[in-house]
Every structure is written in C-alpha cells, then in structure tokens.
Amino acid sequence: MQGRIGFSHPNECRKSAGPHGETSAVSESHNDAFVAFDRVQKSYDGVSLVVKDLNLNIAKGEFLTMLGPSGSGKTTCLMMLAGFETATNGEIRLDGTNINMVPPHKRGIGMVFQNYALFPHMTVGENLSFPLEVRGMGKSDREAKVARALDMVQMGAFANRRPAQLSGGQQQRIALARALVFDPKLVLMDEPLGALDKQLREHMQFEIKHLHESLGITVVYVTHDQGEALTMSDRIAVFNDGRIQQLAPPADLYERPDNSFVAGFIGENNKLPGTLEELSGDKALVRLATGELIDATPVNVTQKGQQTLVSIRPERVEFKTGMMPPGAHMIGAEVLEVIYMGDILRTRLRVAGSDDFVMKCRNTQGQTRLSPGEQIKVGWHPQDARALDPI
C-alpha cells in the first residue's frame, strides 16, 4: 500500500489546542497582539466554567471568526470582549491595555447584532449620528462621518428613511455602518446575518469581507455557520465545551482537522472506525471494522491497537478508474441513494459497514449516473485519509 505524503503546517499562522485546551496564535506574542485573551475563564454559577483557560491573540487588521455549536463559549467570549460580561479570571487586553474593568462605551469597540438594534423612532442618519453625539462631536463633523459611513455600505440615498421602511438586508447594512461610523479600534459581530435569507446572507458575506479588506479594520465575528466562517475569515477558532479545539486559516482547518470534533463540525465528513495496526512517522496502517487495511495520516493517535476514526472528505472520493489519483485506495461499495443537488451529485454508499459514506461528484456533461443497488469500487488518495481520535 502507498504511504501518505507528509503535510507541512505553516507555524506562522496555525495553532491548535494543547492538552488542556489552551490555545494561542504563533504570529502574535501577548505583548504584540492587538486583542489578547490571557488565561480567561468565565463562570456564571461559581462552579462550572463556560470558558476554560482561554489564551487567544488576534492581530491588528485580522478577521477572526469564533465558530462553534450553541453553548460552546464563543458568544460569551465576544460579550466579555465587548464588556457586556465580566471575566471570572484572567485578563483581556486591547491594544496593550487591560480592559477588564473598562465599561463598554469607553472601549472604542463597534458592535453589530443579529437583530440590528436600530432605534425605530430615528431616521437612518440619526441612528448613525447618535454614537457621534454621545462622543461630543460637532454637527458638521457628524454629518461628514455619517455620509462617509453610508457610502461605505452603499446606502447614501437612505439617510432620511426610518428602519421600518428598509428591508432586512438594508437594515443590516445600516447596523454595520453605525458600528463603523466613529472609526472604532475593533468591530465585533454577533451572528449578524442569521436573520437573512440564504441568498442575501451569502451576498452580505462578500460585502462584509470586501469592506474589511478595503478598510483594514480588525473584526471578531461569531457564527455557528461553517460556510460563513470559511468564506469570510483570515483565521477561525473552533470552540467546543468552552475551549478552542483548533485555531487556523480556513483551508488549513478544512484540509487538516486536528481532531474528530473539528473534522465533523467543519463541512461534511466520512468517518470509518478502525484500529491502528502500524505507526511510523507520518504514516499509519488502519484496519477497518470490516477487516480492510488502509493507509492514513496519524493526527492524534499514538500507539498500535488504539481505536481511531478515519476521516475522508466526500469530494475526495472517486469511482471512475481514470480519475483515481496515484496511490489511491480501492474499496468495494454499494450505491444506496443518489441525490441531485444542481452543481453536484451526492451519492450515499455502503462502505466498510457504514451506510452513511458520502461521495460528491461535480455534475458535468456526460457524468456517469449511478443507480441504487449498483456495486462499484470507490477510491481516495491515502493523504486524504486522516486517523483521528474516536469520538
């Protein structure tokens, strides 16, 4: 069998959880980071920790997304950074200054919420002018900044309308403009696109991404939507049970998950249970539950006889002999279901005893159409199989 070619991991931007879940970005030391969480904990009852020993550094101008399921601790971290929650232990720094005891309105942070939080009795222009008035800015300066912020989000013609006269997408643009109007040090976004329909949400993802790129602002974004995080972020921190499971750029996170939770949470993923038969450097030989032997890359398995889940992305699975990559494994499969999804054909297979093995193929002209009940061979390159911890 073909062994797996070792991957290189760029240390300048990639970091994952340590043995106790502690995490920090290599590219920024605590002294240099624009935003720094230093051993931060949060408990609401004095006993259980919602956030556990968080060490996280965010660079100036970075777009960092906190991603994870409900209850994972991501929103609590954002609220502590905003000042709406207080850390139980540890220190949060912004541009080198401890802000643990600084009230929210004095942190210089812009905030965008899912529900927009616009004042309904004010016009769009008045909504944007309000945070400038609070800061004591003169009328002419306020008007200039409001006009500039509205132009940023392509809403310059809507200054005299009230929020109720705007669509959901327009209201979200105004909420974004209000967060930017006073030139904040940092912008926080808490599920800002969650209330929008799919098409508008995807459009707004690109708008926010391009706005971030053009302004160079620092953004911390919270979402449970994996596709949203992959589309927009410079780096993603995947949260679970109050800890960061992995911190990495989108491609690194998707292609090289550090554990079974990340592999299962980021995108669709096939998982084949097995036992580690041999281990040598960056190569592992795994015996699947049905007896087949396959090569894989050992990630967090360390000894012979250890149980593992082999992770394989559906788009890396092929059934056409001519399309197989060099060194690909071949294994028998039964077609159970074929679903037409427009741009792709999603085929569910029975492979090595699993009835939930998925293969995704591009829907191209002349594509071979499979039918339920067909017996086929499927394959993947050994480097696309990762031997991870069993859940």
Q: What do these coordinates show?
A:
The protein has 391 residues and is an alpha+beta fold. It has two domains: 15-260, Rossmann fold (3-Layer(aba) Sandwich); 268-388, Nucleic acid-binding proteins (OB fold (Dihydrolipoamide Acetyltransferase, E2P), Beta Barrel), CATH 2.40.50. It contains eight helices and 20 strands. The strands form four sheets. It has a seven-stranded mixed sheet, with helices on both faces. A five-stranded mixed β-barrel has the order 12-13-14-20-15. Strand 12 (270-280) and strand 13 (283-288) form a beta hairpin. The radius of gyration is 24 Å and the shape is globular.
Short description:
It is an enzyme of class 7 (translocase). This protein is an alpha+beta fold and 391 residues long.
> How large a portion of the residues is in β-strands, by DSSP E?
25-35%
The residue fraction in helices comes out at 10-25%
* Helix and strand run: EEEEHEEEHHHEHEHEEHHEEEEEEEEE
Low-confidence stretches: 1-30
CATH architecture descriptor text of the largest domain: 3-Layer(aba) Sandwich
**CATH topology term of the largest domain:** Rossmann fold
Gross morphology is globular
Which structural category fits the helices and strands?
A: alpha+beta
Provide the residue-averaged pLDDT.
87
User: For the CA atoms, what is the radius of gyration?
Assistant: 24 Å
How many domains? The number is: 2
Which strands sit side by side, in order, in the main sheet?
Answer: 1-11-10-4-9-8-7
Distance from N terminus to C terminus (CA atoms, Å) equals: 27 Å
CATH hierarchy, class of the largest domain: Alpha Beta
- Tally the helices: what do you get? 8
CATH level-4 homologous superfamily of the largest domain: P-loop containing nucleotide triphosphate hydrolases
> How does the major sheet shape up?
7 strands, mixed
The multimeric state of the shown protein is single chain
> Number of DSSP strands?
20
Family: Belongs to the ABC transporter superfamily. Spermidine/putrescine importer (TC 3.A.1.11.1) family.
Keywords: ATP-binding, Cell membrane, Membrane, Nucleotide-binding, Translocase, Transport
EC number: 7.6.2.11
Function: Part of the ABC transporter complex PotABCD involved in spermidine/putrescine import. Responsible for energy coupling to the transport system.
